């Protein structure tokens, strides 16, 4: 029997990306489900890089760490959408 525990981080990242992309979609409009997922996943990387660089500081919600992750990913997704719209003009 195969161990599927190795896939858990990828599934969590995809769900996190979907939620973040969907929230960014609600705020700025655009996209569909697939675009929301990709925007959210890329946004998670961008938001995480901003946190690591010290450029993005949010209060850590110790009771719900996943809320912090989704907020960081959503901020990253919003930045991705804004940059894409500026480049696309």
From TrEMBL:
Task: Kindly state which keywords UniProt assigns to this record, in alphabetical order.
Answer: Membrane, Transmembrane, Transmembrane helix
Note the superkingdom of the native organism: Bacteria
Q: What are the TM regions of this chain, as residue ranges?
A: 6-28, 40-60, 66-87
Q: What is this protein called?
A: GlsB/YeaQ/YmgE family stress response membrane protein
Q: Which organism is it from?
A: Hyphomicrobium album
């Amino acid at each position: 029997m195969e161990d599927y525990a190795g896939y858990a981080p990828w599934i969590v990242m995809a769900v996190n990306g979907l939620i973040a992309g969907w929230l960014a979609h609600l705020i700025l409009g655009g996209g569909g489900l697939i675009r929301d997922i990709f925007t959210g996943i890329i946004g998670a990387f961008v938001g995480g890089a901003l946190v690591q660089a010290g450029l993005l500081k949010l209060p850590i919600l110790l009771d719900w760490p996943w809320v912090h992750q989704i907020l960081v990913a959503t901020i990253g997704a919003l930045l991705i959408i804004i940059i894409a719209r500026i480049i696309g003009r």
